[in-house]
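Next up, sample data:
>
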Amino acid sequence: MAILNDVSEKLTQVGQTVTQKTKQFAETAKLSAKVSEEEKKIKECYVKIGQLYVSKLTAEVEPEFADLVNELHVCEDNAKKYKDQLKGLKGYTVCAKCGADVTVGSAFCNTCGAPMPVLTPVENTEDGEDASDENAEDKVD
């Protein structure tokens, strides 16, 4: 009988240990999730602070921020260029007056009525330079 009591006691201890470890694991998972959530909020705050700082910049940028601000402006310009290229592939252009999307080939903007530029073909000279003036767009009268 002593053997059965020992086995029963050991099984009870093992069960309690497993229950305790399971609770610890669950609590660890909950806390890890909370840490991740707070770290995500911290990153979002840093992004908002940075956006606010850049929006408040004047012509003078502090030297330690100059490279980052310049990189930011280059990335913004590139993103705009790529968006414009996407619109071109989809058959749209942007109205210079109001910024609305207009179907390529339209004579006027559907939103503000501004005349849309008509693109003229660009001629290349023998040295590869553009023979036309820098602005190869003519406005519709």
About this structure: The two ends are 108 Å apart (CA to CA).
